[in-house]
Amino acid sequence: MKNVTARQKYINPFRPHFERSSAIAWMVVACLMVLEMLLPNAPTLILAGLALICMGAAVPWVRAWLSLLHMRDRMNHREVSILPFSEARKHFDPNHSRTWLGWGFNWNLDESQLAREVVLADPTKITQAEALDSPGQSWLHGVGADEQPIYLPVVDEHTLIIAMTRWGKTVLYRLLIAQAANRGEAVFVFDPKGDSGLREACEQACRDAGKKLLVFHPGFPATSVRLDPLKNFDDSSEVASRVSALLGRGSRDATFTAFAFMQMVNVVNGMLLAGKRPTLVAIKRYLDGGLEILLVEAITAYCKRVFQDGWEQGLETYRRRVIGRRKKRPDESDGPMLLSAEEEAQALMAFYRENIASNQSSPEIDGLIATVEHPAEHRSKMLTSLMPVLTKLTSGALARLLSTDLTDPGDTRVVTDAARIIEQQQVIYIGLNALGNEDVANAIGEILLADLAAVCGSRYNYAKDRKIVSIFVDEAPEILNSELIKLLNKGGGAGFRLTLATQTVSDIVARLGDSAMAEKVMGNIANFIFGRVTATESQEYFCERLPRVPIKTLVHSRSVTSPTLDPLSYSTSQGETLQTTLEAPIEPPMLGCLPKLHFFALIGSRFVKGRIPVVVPDAS
Ligand SMILES: Nc1ncnc2c1ncn2[C@@H]1O[C@H](COP(=O)(O)OP(=O)(O)O)[C@@H](O)[C@H]1O
Ligand SMILES: [Mg+2]
Questions:
Q1: Cβ–Cβ contacts within 10 Å for residue 567, how many?
Q2: 41, 57, 463, 550: least buried by Cβ within 10 Å?
Q3: Ligand 1 pocket member 616 (CB < 6 A)
Q4: How many Cα atoms sit within 13 Å of 277 on the Cβ side?
Q5: Which residue has the higher pLDDT, 7 or 151?
Q6: Cα of 430 to ligand 1 centre, how many Å?
Q7: What is the pLDDT of residues 198-250, one digit of tens each?
Q8: Distance 168 CA to ligand 1 centre (A)
């Protein structure tokens, strides 16, 4: 019975306005009655009664006519709703349990059926021609009878937004960021392409929430906060994988990555042993010919721990042995013999091997020795694509922005890190453009995201109060890496909610290298918001996820058979079959027809069609 209703609903928009004639006829007659009342000696009472009856008779016709007009009007509605911030704010959920996305309706069976039949009957018959400046078929939104506010639940779930450029991703982010800040969450906004709209959105959100916006922007170092991406870690391998991941932009050869990772693990372990905090600048300094110094510091620190005071005296023999191996004998009269860093390292290595390694060996020092003894030429060849990025991140203005242990009393910029931002529930905008080097910009994004993943990991393991953290990543594939997968996997449990936006699904697959990895990323996403997208893989990706609905199709058949032997005894048949098949509620190409700011969304298992308003600053 319901399907029949759906079909009738569909037929409505296309049929002629046949109610219009009846409605007008009844109303004209009613008016004539009223005019006749003005004539002398007219039977006023009778005429008034008749006029009323005619008006009453006109009512159902007028109503049916208006309803048809209303439906056609809805299907032609393409204006964008522009809301001043103060107006938009009224739609925010006061209980902070859901995020307002705009208006729309649930797209169920009726809507699916109606949309298909509109397509079959040619939507251009009832809608205006597509405007050149705002393409898209607005009838898709007119399919729903009533618009309601559409909300996204505020739970530990991730959201993916896919839409082509200029569809309105930044406009949607404006709405989402404003609400996240309004709820008092810590908010991280990653902007790899430097969209002024996104920064303004953060400023507006902070003004409303009464917070100060933190801006990290290597393009404007003077006004940027300083953010150390290596501040938070549970063990050395985390730091190592964060730094070695910088290698990934050029070659993703596993051998190079594994080698870089091992080198980093050894260096970071050495630094931790020597009581030094790993920062990018320090790691770079040690890698650039300072490995022996690090080894000396690490073994010295270790010996202080395992031996009692006075252990250094035992070292003298080893020092002399090293000096003895010099080609040119030192001048004995020069007083105490000075050893170069390499010689000191040689002496300490021999001391370690002969006095400690057998019973109190340290895997960290063993690793560092392996790194120091590794042929330097081979090492630099293997790290050849890592070092340029690392050099850029540790020179010029970036050195102080990313390595916050470089102290300078004249530097009054805010020093912070991911854990602190979360603790203080601040809002930070991380702009990465304007560096002139996309690889470096994206590397910064990746390493900061990795830092967040580490904070997330430790909060997942230890934190008692799980403050919600909202992370918005625009142009997500630019800074996607395996660290982000950790964030997506564990993020939910730690109260981290990610929103990723990009143009197509295949961008994500291409960035992650293979579809299995991409599937891992996507497998953690609960909500999908798809705007206008013309790439067929993205359209199909979305439609495959939608719950199927039974679609009815009317099949007409007609046949004529005439036997060759007796042409006059022919037979004909005609039939009509109503077939039901389980199909996706929309056809994939419909996604390519969406107007700007219109979307289809799969929120949990609920499928909705919606449109988002453009929120603009208040006039004052
Ligand atoms: N104040 C406004 N009035 C009308 N339309 C707007 C306004 N602001 C933005 N838009 C529309 O929203 C779109 C901007 O989308 P944007 O969010 O920058 O796209 P994306 O981030 O997806 O590339 C523009 O195409 C524009 O038509
Ligand atoms: Mg944008």
A1: 8
A2: 41
A3: yes
A4: 11
A5: 151
A6: 21
A7: 999 999 999 999 999 999 998 888 889 998 888 888 888 888 888 887 776 55
A8: 5
